[in-house]
Each structure stands twice: as C-alpha cells, then as structure tokens.
C-alpha cells in the first residue's frame, strides 16, 4: 500500500503533462489563416502573421531578411502549412 502512495504523484504529473501538451498541440491545428504574399521578406510574413494570430515568432535581430523573397498564396490553412 505504501508503494501506491509513493507512485501517485508521478502518475498525476504524467497525466498533467499529457493533457497540457495534447491541448497545445490541438490548439495549434484548429486555427486557420489565408495568406497572399508577393515578393515578401520572411520578416514581413512573420509580422503579418503575428498581427493576425496569437502566435509570436522569435528570431535573431541580426538576420538578413532581404533574401529570399517569398511569393505565397494559401486559403484557410494552418500556420504550420504556411510556415512549411
């Protein structure tokens, strides 16, 4: 009986993390966005997505975003689809 109580907190921790990571994964796939970029820099795309979604992108400030320029048109797709 003593072993049961010792393992109980571990089981609760596993359950908590399973629910938490399952919820965040499901949330990321439920939102859709439509994009239409013509010769846009990656920085412009990130800023546009940040202004229209709850997502934030983190990158180094010294990255040169002048190339490559991206042309992309997608309707009602997930953020993952836009970024891939």
Question: What gyration radius follows from the Cα positions, in whole Å?
Answer: 20 Å
Structural class: alpha+beta
Topology pattern, helix = H, strand = E? HEHEH
Averaged pLDDT: 77
Shape field: elongated
Question: How far apart are the first and last residues' alpha carbons, in Å?
Answer: 51 Å
Spans of at least 5 consecutive residues whose pLDDT stays below 50 are 23-27
Strand order of the largest sheet: 1-2
Question: Which key features would you list for this structure?
Answer:
2 strands, two-stranded antiparallel ribbon, 2 domains, alpha+beta, elongated, 3 helices, 84 residues
What does this structure look like?
This protein is α+β, with helices and mostly antiparallel strands and 84 residues long. The chain has two domains: 1-30; 32-84. It is built from three helices and two strands; from the N terminus they run H-E-H-E-H. It has helices at residues 2-30, 42-52, 79-83; strands at 33-40, 70-77. Strands 1-2 form a two-stranded antiparallel sheet. The longest helix has 29 residues, at 2-30. The termini are far apart. The relative contact order is 0.18. The model is unreliable at 23-27 (pLDDT under 50).
Task: Report a brief summary of the structure.
With about 80 residues, the protein is of the alpha+beta class. It has three helices and two strands, in the order H-E-H-E-H.
Write the layout of secondary structure elements.
Elements: H1 2-30, E1 33-40, H2 42-52, E2 70-77, H3 79-83
Antiparallel strand pairs: 1-2
């Amino acid at each position: 009986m003593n072993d049961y109580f010792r393992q109980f907190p571990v089981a609760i921790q596993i359950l908590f993390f399973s629910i938490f990571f399952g919820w965040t994964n499901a949330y990321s796939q439920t939102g859709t966005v439509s994009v239409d970029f013509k010769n846009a820099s990656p920085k412009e795309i990130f800023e546009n997505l940040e202004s229209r979604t709850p997502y934030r992108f983190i990158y180094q400030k010294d990255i040169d975003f002048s190339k490559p320029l991206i042309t992309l048109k997608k309707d009602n797709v997930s953020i993952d689809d836009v970024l891939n």
